[in-house]
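Hi R.,

Here's the chain you asked about this morning:
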Amino acid sequence: MVSIRRAVASDAAQLGLLGAMLMRVHYAFDPQRFLAAGAQAARGYGNFLESQLEDDEAVVLVAERDARIIGYVYAGLEPMSWKELRGPAAFIYDVMVEEEAQGGGAGSALIDAAIAWARERGAARVMLWTAEQNTKAQRLFERTGFRRTMIEMTKEI
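And the predicted structure, written out as tokens:
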């Protein structure tokens, strides 16, 4: 059974490990586009997510199984953006579930909880970005009701 709760400061080390895992996965997809997870990535990512815990416009939620954190979601509210041609929206910035726990419902539960958080704050839509090669995550996002709307393109110069 997976339970979802708000992250607290004492979760920072485990969140950092999951964040560094997220970095490694993305770097493997495209090392020119994504940051490498260096020696301090887990500590840095954990510190960053901990810094978001008191932000009223953001939320970090964790998925637990048997009192152990197996995943997290980081989401936030963003204002209208002329640059992105969109109205105010909630964004899911990160979703990460330990590899051995994937397929057990934690990812869907985290996304559902982030959407509920956004809905409670009056968001009309929730958006996210996903790596082009991350077909596993894309299937999860589609199962939870997301549709494709944009394609990011990168050119190194």
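Residues 9 and 51 are 9 Å apart (CA to CA).

Let me know if you need anything else.
M.
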